[in-house]
Design goal:
This protein is an alpha/beta fold and 181 residues long. 30% of the residues lie in helices and 28% in strands. The chain has a single domain (5-180), classed as 3-Layer(aba) Sandwich (Rossmann fold), CATH 3.40.50.
């Protein structure tokens, strides 16, 4: 392939991100990422973020690059975890946690950690977004006016706990942004 994925804006702009071409990862393409961050840029400054299915860390790193004060990166795969750890080298305010997404969410409940922005880009075939939105709402993991940024393909998202404030389609991908009431 020969393509290189990079941070597209902010203080880490131009930093290479490895691991986007590994089987099991599905990176957010630059134009989608640029549009996504355009939609949430006013919420990034000093925010606490969660990149729940971190993969290469592209979304969380972009958030930190653009003013987020902290980002938690959750990754369960050994191979991808090591690459993500490498990608986070030199990036401050990042916390990398090797857990399954359910264990991670329960950990945040136990530790009383809440977020301003949650990035949800789970494996498409698993249709996890509705369940995760419900859990985040029930366990109150999102600060008021917090956002959940979802990237998905053909999943039908059922969500009565959050307000859908934006949705956009890019080819077969959708990005929907929900806000806490």
């Amino acid at each position: 392939m020969g393509e290189i994925m990079r941070v597209i804006s902010g203080k880490y702009k131009g930093k290479n991100i490895m691991g986007f071409d590994i089987s099991g990862t599905r990176p957010t393409m630059d134009r989608v990422k640029e549009s996504m961050f355009g939609m949430i840029q006013n919420n990034l400054k000093n925010s606490i973020c969660l990149d729940l299915f971190a993969g290469s860390g592209s979304l969380g790193i972009e958030a930190l690059s653009n003013g987020a004060s902290k980002c938690y990166f959750i990754e369960n795969s050994n191979l991808i975890f090591d690459i993500l750890k490498n990608n986070l080298n030199g990036i401050s305010n990042s916390e990398l946690i090797k857990k399954d997404y359910k264990e991670a969410l329960n950990f945040f409940v136990k530790e009383k950690i809440k977020f301003d922005i949650i990035f949800l880009d789970p494996p498409y075939k698993l249709n996890l977004i509705s369940d995760i939105l419900r859990f985040v709402s029930e366990k109150d993991l999102l600060n008021s006016n917090g956002l959940i940024v979802c990237e998905f393909e053909d999943e039908v998202i059922e969500c009565s706990d959050f307000e859908l404030i934006k949705t956009k389609k890019y080819g077969s991908k959708h990005v929907s942004i929900y806000r806490k009431f």
